[in-house]
Amino acid sequence: MYTNIFKKSLGLLIFLFIACISLANQVGEKRVADRSHYAVPLAGNAFLTNKPAAATEQIRNNGLINWSNPSSIVSVYFRVKDARTLNLKLRAKAPSANSSSRIRITLGGTSKEIELFGAEVKDYEVGVFSAQSGYVQVDLQGISKTGQYFGDVSHLLIGTELDSSDFLYANDPAYYYWARRGPSCHMAYTIPSSDPIEYYYGELTVPQGQDAIGSYFMSNGFSEGYFGIQVNSVTERRILFSVWSPFATDNPADIPEHLRVTLNRKGEGVHTGEFGNEGSGGQSFLRYNWTAGSSYRFLLKGKPDGNGATDFTAWIYLSDQDGWSLIASWKRPELSKNLTGFHSFLENFDPNNGHLGRKVLFSNRWVRTASGNWLPIQSAKFTVDATYHAKQRIDAIGGVLNDEFYLQNGGFFSTIVAPNSVFSIPAAQDAPKINFDALP
Q: What is the pTM of this model?
């Protein structure tokens, strides 16, 4: 009898155990299904798209802080595969236990308001919005507050049934800084000769309105350095030419004396020194108020000095300064070769301006062999950086426009051009006319 009771009890326990597992699985499935809210951190995905001069707001690793100005607008960006409705929540807190504030959230022309209250972080329900495919912009604006600040916001929560592969935002803290800068993009040119190349010529135009602060429009890139123009501030622009040292370090002070890039000569008004943080080497720049909508001509020379080093020299044609102007000539040790690795690139170096778009055109590209033959560049490959490849942000494209190569990034546009796409243009007919003996 006791054996039968034991068997029945054991059977009941097994049944209950299986039932519990089944229930747990069902609950687990429901929890997985409920995990449809993506937590988009403001740290890597938000910008102050309107910030009055006296505003104190900042985007930091913990999100939006010091939010006090009602005229400030904070915009959060993410990308969806196709048009859909989204349920939004805000992970936020008011400044103190006794304070409250009213916040407006806007997506695609539709606005809803919520109240933040208390110093505890909470997920506030905002509501349902319609979103188009591609990058989506959600704006936050403070309406009223009882204290000094509206509150702190760490995440925008997005409710959607999209699979993670179809919903894109910066979700890796290691990339937040780079995602806010935006993906860099490049044109790698095909050179129509295996002969040594001594000169590299190219023209560059930044269209009007595409010269956002923080932009570097790099015209003549090569294996050992880069040469282009940048926007450093509202009042300052530069022509920049840099050459890397053969010693791999981000700290120029670590470079042994015999491996340092040294200055041969420089142009009038040109500043020279060292650079770091992205490799190290010699840097030269001329403060010059170049203008969007105007074309600029770049000329680069690379020639071995016969003693185990190579001299790299950069000139730019400035019509208001009597033609070709020398930027600098640098000597790179432990290298004896002509120019290689021909490319251009576009980047933003200001993480606070990653929401702004920029575009650049590259035209009339030529190389001149060491024997004196000019050859036109007709083909280029569009490539992107690690931020794009890591799917943290993908608003970067390149291609051909009116028989000119172009690059575009920033601004959270939704057009996609497949990385490693190859583009071609018709061969330019007239080689550059340059009196090399008269170059400064």
A: 0.89
